[in-house]
């Protein structure tokens, strides 16, 4: 198992290095030449990665075979890459508060407001599905809502470098796990009434993982975020920002725990994880090309 995970991490590192380089180019073009020009450049960029990234192409084909229930053709693979690239491009504008460029439809917004009643904060679980940054649309509609992202230290460092290129003021929105004060930082933000956002479909080598059936086969999911939610006794809401083409996004919120349930004996870590995996599969089927885990997820 450790050898397989090491291979997975190698794929992710290569993908992240290539993605960071593309993001920096996209930032420059997007902010100086505009979205239409930047989107035109996505075509050759995606063609390059479809052609010269065999591992991620294989992973894309495997996922699309499962979600489409047929063998994907080249157009499907390109659409998968292009959807990812389009969300990367739009991140530049979303993180610079240029939400007026987009048509964003929000579903379940009252669930977040309800979870935040009492000022004790809540957990907001997402995935590498669509755009997590489109969550900023809720912040504009509800200015009192604050979101702190939580991720592992290595990822936080890489993301901060990218965010500094897009909007330097955003770097402080991230809490890095793996430090002695990480949990204190999470508890402090919760006490201030923040939403604590995590992408919980992906874990790291050495982290406690469990197998769950996902799109017809067992896959690994990390236990840590779900244990944290139960331990800190906060409500859990799932959020998926689905890209629908052009300028359109749909933001979906669903409550995974009922009022007073998180942290109580009425729900276990396994039950919370099962609920999450079921909703993740639902939204993958709803927007199949929004899945952005370009590695062998079912190792």
Task: Describe the 3D structure.
It contains 10 helices and 9 strands. 50% of the residues lie in helices and 18% in strands. The chain has helices at residues 2-33, 35-52, 54-68, 74-94, 109-115, 136-141, 153-166, 182-191, 224-232, 269-286, and strands spanning 103-107, 122-126, 147-152, 174-177, 195-199, 209-214, 217-222, 236-243, 248-255. A hairpin with a 2-residue loop joins β6 and β7. α1 packs antiparallel against α2, α1 (2-33) packs across α4 and α2 crosses α4. 36% of the residues are buried. With 299 residues, it is of the alpha/beta class. The longest helix has 32 residues, at 2-33. Strands 1-9-8-2-5-3-4 form a 7-stranded mixed β-sheet. Strands 6-7 form a two-stranded antiparallel ribbon. The model is unreliable at 1-5 (pLDDT under 50). The chain has one domain. The termini are close together.
Number of domains: 1
Q: Describe the strand arrangement of the main beta sheet, using strand numbers.
A: 1-9-8-2-5-3-4
Counting helices, strands and paired strands, the structural category is alpha/beta
Proportion of β residues? 15-25%
Helix fraction by DSSP (H/I, runs of at least 4): 40-55%
Question: What would the average pLDDT be, to the nearest integer?
Answer: 85
Order of helices and strands: HHHHEHEHEHEHEEEHEEH
What is the overall number of helices? 10
What ranges have pLDDT less than 50 throughout 5 or more consecutive residues?
Answer: 1-5
User: How many whole angstroms does the radius of gyration measure?
Assistant: 18 Å
- Tell me the major beta sheet: 7 strands, mixed
Number of strands: 9
Shape designation: globular
